[in-house]
Request: fold
Amino acid sequence: MLYFVGERLSLPALRFSASSISQRDHHPRRGLQNYGPYDALTLGKDRVNCLIMYPGHLQTAKQTLVGGLQNGNGAFAGFQKLFRIPLAIIGERSLPDETAVQLQRTLPVLVRDTRPDIVLLLSSTRNPSFYTTAKSVLLGLGVPSQIVTREKLSNTNQLPWTLENIALQMYAKIGGTPWTVLSLQRQRSLVLGISRAQDEKKRLVVGFVTLFSSDGDYLFFSSIAPNPTLWDDREAYQEALASVIVSAYHDYSDLNGQPEEIVIHLCKKPGRFREFPAAEQAMKQLAAKVPYAILHLNEYSTYRLFDTAHPSYVPQPGIKVALSETRNLLFLDGRKRDFRTGEETRTRRGVPGVYEIGFDTRSTLNVSEFPRLVRQVFDFAAVNWRGFNAQAKPATLNYSRLIANMIAEIGVDTWTQHIAQLELLADKAWFL
Reply:
């Protein structure tokens, strides 16, 4: 019989003010309701300008959506009360149908005329052609978008929570920071997440995302890779990753001084000849002696964790088990306490998964820092602005995967054409 040593990491506190560490909470919804978003005083806008487009036969659904966002619905008090800034509808356009041709004809002109912060599009169902065209055209214009289906709005019992999650994504997409993690670590960290997705030709496309820590806060930083890369093009991938590291290093240094460490999060196991040559190449270009670590985060581990002391057998999140000096299990999912009822529940079905995290021994950061880096992964799972009850995943992998999915859906060639305009979205979570 094997015995392993484990511990439960405490849930990270979330911070809801850039100027006061006392405005904190462990629950994102309650924190926003009490304090407003982290950057309420520094967003630089007096309102969020929104352009809405919808098929003519969805007039009722449009009224439900706009009315709910502006005035609230049930437990959701509305965009302005939650984020302390009004949502202004600066333009509406009814479409005769839900075709890509209509979007290509009307979107560029409307966006240039109204100059919105975000475009809200309504469709009947998840229409791949409509969705891909809308995202592609708007990315080319440097404008984030939020696409909502009538199906999402049809469940009246869930409507307040649906509207609340839409509002959260919209605020993040226009460049807002709803909350950050108040971390115990004080190292200035530049962290990169790398994930992959398959395009229609079954090629693996890579997405990058970078985050950084400053005074203990983990902040979303940048999401645009200089070039889209395909996994089977090793040289292009290594050059792109090296370029991302160099660019992120300079951006970080301009704002905060030189980072004290660079950490790279990879989905699954890192390639033997891919990441380290890229990291070494970047360090040579920078002429910097910044230690770096590469972690592989395998969310498809064969291990499972159970809590035999609870009737559900589902553990609480934060359980960490050391398999060796360089391998840990980390439980991100699990039963959570509802701050309104005090009950511990888990809404998802199936056996909760566990992350298997490995520290690559070729890293120049000392392996003694591995426990702190595992804690960092756990903290990043709390910076998920995709929804208040979104599945717990590290933002580094979750966000970079969403970007890779977007590249795969739009197409690498189209993405390449949009690179210049995409820089307008670099500090926005446009991919949520």
Q: What stands out?
A: The longest strand covers residues 204-214.
